[in-house]
Design a protein that fits this description.
The complex is a heterodimer of chains A (434) and B (330). With 434 residues, chain A is α/β, with parallel strands linked by helices. Chain A has a single domain, classed as TIM Barrel, CATH 3.20.20. Chain A is built from twelve helices and 17 strands. In chain A, β12, α7 and β13 form a beta-alpha-beta unit. In chain A, α4 crosses α6 and α6 runs parallel beside α7. Chain A is globular. Chain B has 330 residues and is of the alpha/beta class. Chain B folds into two domains: 138 residues, Aspartate/ornithine carbamoyltransferase (Rossmann fold, 3-Layer(aba) Sandwich), CATH 3.40.50.1370; 162 residues, Aspartate/ornithine carbamoyltransferase (Rossmann fold), CATH 3.40.50.1370. Chain B has twelve helices and nine strands. Chain B has a five-stranded parallel beta sheet with strand order 7-6-5-8-9. A four-stranded parallel beta sheet of chain B has the order 2-1-3-4, sandwiched between helices. Classes of the chains: A alpha/beta (434), B alpha/beta (330). Chains A and B meet through α5, α9 and α11 of A and α5 of B.
Chain lengths: 434, 330
């Protein structure tokens, strides 16, 4: 594989506590040298990226994306979804299992991860925790783990039954991977299409109460306690797309208690509130829904104080005809891979003074750690040559029409972004140039 | 924490002029103008009236059953000279799975210049208006709004409280000193939402009354000037207008309600009316269930304006159609 030089940039690599001008030499898909500026000037390389004025950071990692392949390739394919990922600065993404059919066997997992799918960035997957994500019988965690699973989830819905979730946490602890939970007590959310509250009341839409999220988070934390006590195991619970102050508070306490809980926050949950539903904008419909301002503020606070471990997009493409429907009939979800960095920098970095290194940590280092992606989320010598180069000060507006994703279902069309990706390099290959 | 201004702005949508999707889209001046045009049309001779929309095409698209709203829109359109067509979910390609967008585009291609939509999903008229670009009149969408009902209720109130000559214009103070008590299944009521939002902007105080299951505290967010009173008799004692609502069994979705208990607490009967509100105007948007939310003697009594509401519906809807189609002078 040919060499790539990344010169004159400011390297921000939180894992190695680096935040200074450095040049990089990438060789054979790995980081071959990290040197003081100028040191690598004589080196011949097939490709040189001039990163003057840019941030050079470990490629972003998204532990929560829906790529819709197999089964719903009219919404997205692995190739188009990962092209959008590359444009957003991501070099690793973790595909959720709610494809058609559900990814719940080794054969399906291997098919998904096969190079023939044309993934542009490094693709990982979390297979289903239960067969068909039906919530009843566990999948074969050990076999799937050996085939590359980085966690288990029934995302799109929760593992609802106490005993099934308990068994999933035990099996995942033995396989040393997390159970990633979509925390929604679906017994409380039937027929609901947005957050419960005054906005839902005014719009005449049935609302999901914040308790529906908190109840599952509370229950899962209680299961961790019981398993640690009774089984001598230390399961890892990862709570997906936390959206409520109430659930975040429960996670904060569980962490203080020493339980192994991590969680993610989606950009829309720190950037928007349920007011964005406006005139029944189906591009503001997702699950969990956009919440009240106090919840949004709690998501920001949790990202600032470290209670929230990472940012994950929950990239969920849908075709135009599916979103051009009555609000209650339209499917949940929005695209997110190309707007995540721009929103994080705008809201968290500029808006709340979160240092750049912390933003990188939330979007690369920590999510790589949560899913134990060896050699990723950091840029030391020997690590994978997964790099994002971006202009942290560039202001721009997102144009949904220009998206690499097959779908356009975003509430951020025309929204202001801060920080523009100039190059994305995955295992030494330049996969995107801005 | 920063203020909500850091919340990322989302661009709004545009709708064809003449659309009426929500009372919130109407300025007080526009409400006033609609009342004036209503009076003007009502005073016209049949011949002149039938020229207003002569040759124009209006589609009624009904995904839910309706007696009053459908008939009054249809009769209103015909009295203005328009051609109407009725499409209902039960006897059209909607049954075969055609989407709201495609149904709307089909009606547009057939020459419809305006669509009147009744739909069980809140917000459906917004979809239709966005996708067709046509003026859309919301004739009731799910639990959301019923704007023409609120306007006809306003005209009924103004006429009964102040006389017909004062029902031709309004401003922000027209209903100062008037308390309207809306009682019953507020949660599922589009009539309650439209009335609470419209009447408070004209100076009225709106008291919502009902059990917590049918009236959550979130209702306070509808508008400033809205309050909640769970005790019906106490609310009635303050009322100049008592608007009663039907229990919407079709939308209860698992909510359990003890009807005997409901009747004893919230039914408007003759005894209660005489004791607490002997002069109040009694209104009901229909359909009413006699013996449940109100007793038959009250429905038929002197204080009732229920039939007048229906007549005002015809008049108001005529003006809304003239406005939607941009008829000369409207």
């Amino acid at each position: 594989m040919s060499d790539v030089l990344v010169l004159n940039g400011r390297l921000v690599d939180p894992a190695n506590r680096v935040d200074a001008p450095h040049d990089l030499l990438l060789r054979d898909g790995r980081v071959a040298a990290v040197e003081a500026p100028g040191t690598l000037n004589g080196v011949q390389a097939a490709e040189t990226i001039d990163a003057v004025g840019m941030i050079v950071a470990p490629g972003l990692v998204d532990v929560h994306v829906h790529l819709r392949e197999p089964g719903q390739t009219y919404k997205e394919t692995i190739a188009t979804g990962t092209a959008a990922a590359a444009a957003g600065g991501f070099t690793s993404v973790v595909a959720m299992p709610n494809t058609v059919p559900v990814n719940d066997t080794v054969a399906k997992l291997e098919w998904m991860l096969d190079a023939a799918r044309g993934s542009v960035v490094k693709l990982f997957a979390m297979p289903a925790a239960t067969i068909g994500s039906m919530g009843a019988k566990l999948t074969d965690f050990d076999a799937l783990r050996n085939a590359g699973a980085v966690g288990f989830t029934d995302d799109g819905k929760p593992v609802l039954e106490d005993q099934v979730m308990r068994a999933a946490l035990v099996a995942a602890a033995r396989a040393e991977v997390p159970v990633s939970q979509h925390a929604e007590d679906t017994r409380m959310t039937g027929g609901c299409s947005m957050n419960a509250g005054p906005v839902a009341f005014r719009l005449g839409l049935r609302g999901m109460p914040v308790e529906a999220e908190a109840r599952i988070v509370d229950r899962d934390i209680q299961l961790l306690r019981e398993i640690e006590r009774a089984d001598g195991l230390r399961p890892h619970l990862h709570v997906q797309h936390v959206s409520t102050a109430r659930a975040m508070e429960a996670i904060r306490h569980a962490k203080r208690e020493g339980l192994h809980v991590t969680c993610e926050v989606a950009p829309h949950h720190f950037a928007l509130t349920d007011e964005a539903v406006g005139d029944y904008n189906t591009h503001a419909k997702m699950n969990p829904p956009l919440r009240a301002e106090a919840d949004r503020e709690a998501m920001v606070a949790a990202l600032l104080d470290g209670t929230a471990d990472c940012i994950a997009t929950d990239h969920a493409p849908h075709a135009a005809h599916e979103k051009e429907q009555e609000f209650e009939r339209a499917p949940n979800g929005i695209t997110g891979l190309e707007t995540a960095l721009g929103l994080a920098l705008r809201v968290l970095h500029r808006g709340h003074g979160l240092p750049l290194a912390r933003v990188i940590s939330l979007m690369s280092t920590t999510p790589a750690g949560i899913t134990a992606l060896a050699g990723r989320g950091a840029l030391g010598v020997g690590h994978f040559a997964d790099v994002v180069v971006f202009d942290a000060g560039a202001e721009w507006r997102f144009d949904a029409k220009a998206s690499r994703s097959k779908s356009r279902n975003t509430p951020f069309d025309g929204a202001e972004m801060l920080g523009c990706v100039k190059a994305t390099i995955c295992e030494g290959r330049v996969v995107y140039r801005g | 924490m920063r203020e909500a201004s850091e919340v990322v702005a989302v661009s709004g949508s545009r709708y064809a002029p003449g659309s009426l999707l929500s009372v919130a889209h109407l300025t007080v001046d526009e409400v006033s103008k609609i009342l004036a045009q209503t009076a003007r049309i009502a005073a016209m001779q049949y011949g002149a009236r039938s020229q207003i929309l002569a040759g124009r095409r209006i589609a009624l698209l009904f995904y839910e059953s309706s007696t009053r709203t459908r008939t009054s829109f249809e009769l209103a359109a015909k009295s203005l000279g328009a051609t109407t067509t009725l499409v209902s979910d039960k006897s059209s390609s909607i049954e075969k799975g055609e989407s709201l967008k495609d149904t709307g585009l089909t009606l547009r291609a057939l020459g419809a210049e305006c669509i009147i939509l009744r739909h069980p999903a809140s917000g459906a008229p917004f979809v239709l208006a966005r996708e067709t670009g046509l003026p859309v009149l919301n004739a009731g969408d799910g639990m959301h709004e019923h704007p023409s009902q609120a306007l006809l209720d306003l005209r009924t109130m103004l006429t009964r409280l102040y006389g017909a000559e004062r029902a031709t214009a309004v401003d922000e103070r027209s209903l100062d000193g008037i308390t309207v008590v809306i009682t019953g299944d507020i949660l599922h009521s589009r009539v309650a939402r439209s009335n609470a939002m419209l009447l408070t902007r004209l100076g009225a105080r709106v008291i919502l009354c009902g059990p917590a299951k049918l009236l959550p505290e979130d209702a306070l967010g509808l508008a400033p000037g809205v309050e909640i009173e769970r005790d019906f008799d106490r609310a009635l004692r303050r009322a100049q207008v008592a608007m009663m609502l039907r229990i919407q069994r079709e939308r209860l979705a698992g909510l359990e309600l003890d009807l005997d208990d409901y009747i004893s607490r919230y039914q408007l009967n003759g005894e209660r009316l005489a004791a607490s509100a002997p002069k109040a105007l009694v209104m009901h948007p229909g359909p009413m269930i006699r013996g449940l939310e109100l007793s038959g003697d009250v429905a038929d009594g002197r204080q009732s304006a229920i039939e007048e509401q229906v007549s005002h519906g015809l008049a108001i809807r005529s003006a809304l159609l003239a406005r939607a189609l941009g008829a000369n002078g409207f």
